[in-house]
């Protein structure tokens, strides 16, 4: 019984001291709130693909208190919770970032809990952001002060903390090709086909060219690769690649239709692992028609001779038919 009376006496003394300190304004509260924030950086991918990927990163939050009479006061406030609000700061432009939930309610403890609260930060980036640049967003946690009866006694001071989360923007590749898909040329003639390439990606792009199954006896050449700037860095992002085609030179008259296929593989310049699967096949159709003048003349004579023979045969057949009809009716 005496031990119980002593315990009650100590409680009264401690509460009285807390009341006096808080009332006098000498301190904001008897106990100081402590907030600890952390996240696992290994959960963050190397890059976040723009306009197609949303990454959720868990952030752990631990809340506890320290100060004079902490053990006793925590016993008095047993199972009581403190609201901790979460928000974001320094959000980079062209990103969509959120934190959920925005409020958690940890139990008041005197030591750092073994099972902290968890919130999730969702991050999505835009193709307008330069690729491979590291960005940061800050997660801010604020714990409200805890007041006693009548709102006059502050048991626990408010506190806040913040943590920066780093992430890297991934590569967005988007190439557009403008060229004339049909050309006509003569045997032995060379034609140059300009291919205008416009890059709408968020990084400098390296494009490689390969002619697939070139037609026999045709000569085709095109640069093996070209580099294109990006508007995300304020660079010129168009270029022209010239494909040179020479038709075969043959004897006689030629009338041939051929299709040329060019594979274009685009990737981020300096980062071949990014965008290596971005492949496009361009098709150009070529008609080679013509020959030397003597050959053309011979061909015309052959055509005229065949036409003349056809007309004569037709007239003879018509005359025979008319003769047969006349004899029947005479």
Map the helices and strands.
Layout: H1 2-24, E1 31-39, E2 54-67, H2 70-76, E3 84-89, E4 95-100, E5 103-104, E6 117-125, E7 134-143, E8 146-147, E9 154-157, E10 159-168, E11 175-178, E12 182-185, E13 190-199, E14 205-212, E15 219-221, E16 225-228, E17 238-246, E18 254-268, E19 278-290, H3 293-329
Describe this structure in words.
The chain is α+β, with helices and mostly antiparallel strands. It has 3 helices and 19 strands. The chain has helices at residues 2-24, 70-76, 293-329, and strands at 31-39, 54-67, 84-89, 95-100, 103-104, 117-125, 134-143, 146-147, 154-157, 159-168, 175-178, 182-185, 190-199, 205-212, 219-221, 225-228, 238-246, 254-268, 278-290. The strands form 4 sheets. A 6-stranded mixed beta sheet has the order 4-6-2-1-9-8. The protein has a 5-stranded mixed beta sheet with strand order 12-19-18-14-16, with no helix packed on it. Strand 8 and strand 9 (154-157) form a beta hairpin. The chain is rod-shaped. The termini are far apart. Mean pLDDT is 83; it is low at 19-28.
Instruction: Give the strand tally.
Output: 19
Shape: rod-shaped
Mean pLDDT: 83
Q: List the quaternary state of the chains.
A: single chain
What is the makeup of the main sheet? 6 strands, mixed
